[in-house]
């Protein structure tokens, strides 16, 4: 389907705002900003391309672009690292993509009040390279650490691998500046000013403007928490002969009360099979190993040492076998950058198929993990039995609660997909499977997603079920702040806000 170009007069206005070098309308600039790594309907690629891409350098430029979009009724979609796994940065209704990558400076490093203020286009790797020189880190640590950006972390309200110790994005971002759908620029945060961590004045707006997937505005600056660079890091990989043993031990480790504990991860048997077969960096385990736990702790050297002893004591008492320093340290290090590993060639019908990685994530109560695991694998098995383009790559469960890691787990099933095979039938089957996966999560007292968001086809249909009356509040807020529905329209069923009499 060919998309109408924006009027010349609109492009001229964009050039006047951002500069000729920062406005793109050429084919590859547009097509490349249509896709994200989540299952992407490549057979419908043209349905999602933007009409223009701008790379602004200031909040004022973004504000002007948003005002222009309101005047002309053109959708605006913010795009950061484009690693989001729920299609958030996909311009479903075309329009203008605001790519924030050029806004990537550190604005202020405050040693006294322990904050760093940054533009939204900086990534955690670059930021931490600078902070380390001063003895700090910014501990938002997703597996997309080198390629997701601070703006996207706020747009998704991300989850951090070491969140049990340091918190997740919502805990680490103190305040931020945001361009509202009207074009107005405001600042929201945990307290007064940019750097206060707690206040009780008024509504707690910071959380409203996190995880909205660009539907309520564009973040243009953020003030972030600094923590001491850890003196010591301890990671242990532990093997179990049975998934249920490993599951029980995961709970015991997470409930240990060890203050330096940063995360506990449970790998199931299908995940181990996938790692044995497909991960070049993985050190294969003997056949008797049916479940593996990774646990990690960070902090001052003396505290980490004592905590590690306790964690290993618990692991031993629960029947775990320590897998040695090489895999413990090597595999844990590789968990902070999974971007390259998910692509595999698999032999299919005598030819090599390029399989891409796709991840369904949900927050699941600890007690429900075994049941959810069985039901999710059964759903994916039915898909694999019908079509030879899908593979079950196993499941992980990661501690999910910030500072309180015992209650629920970010639970992920990974599916390999031969994307060149998409057509309407396979896409519809995939969307159905995702809807079923989401339903299982909700039926077991979980949420559809723990960190990616739930905008994609299939799962998004269940958002009103998960949120109940909260979904009506979401629609009211969206319509009040974005009366013309220009901010990332088509996401989260929020078009309903404009269809209904409120
Ligand atoms: C290999 C891999 C591993 C991953 N591991 C993790 C993980 O461990 N934890 C985790 O949380 N996620 C993980 N993800 C998902 C993804 O990295 C996160 O969702 C991340 O926060 C997205 O950031 P981004 O910069 O890529 O944002 P994008 O994908 O560009 O955008 C994400 C959303 O935020 C919106 N947005 C972008 N910029 C702004 C802005 N300035 N203001 C307002 N809204 C904005 C976009 O419109 C979109 O809706 C992983 C992804 C991959 C590919």
Largest sheet: 8 strands, antiparallel
Q: Order of strands across the biggest sheet?
A: 15-12-14-13-18-19-17-16
End-to-end Cα distance, whole Å, is 34 Å
Helix fraction bin:
25-40%
Uncertain runs with pLDDT below 50, 5 residues or more? Answer: none
Helical stretch count?
17
Instruction: Identify the overall geometry.
Output: globular
What's the total count of β strands?
Answer: 19
Task: Give a structural overview.
This protein is 33% helix and 23% strand. The protein is of the alpha+beta class and 502 residues long. Strand 16 and strand 17 form a beta hairpin. The radius of gyration is 23 Å and the shape is globular. The model has no long low-confidence stretch (mean pLDDT 94).
Give a concise summary.
The chain has helices spanning 8-18, 27-32, 59-72, 124-132, 150-156, 163-166, 169-172, 205-208, 243-254, 269-278, 301-317, 325-334, 369-386, 424-443, 463-467, 469-481, 496-499, and strands at residues 23-24, 52-54, 76-79, 96-99, 106-110, 115-118, 136-137, 173-179, 185-189, 218-225, 227-228, 232-240, 261-267, 291-299, 321-322, 344-348, 351-365, 390-399, 408-418. It is an alpha+beta fold.
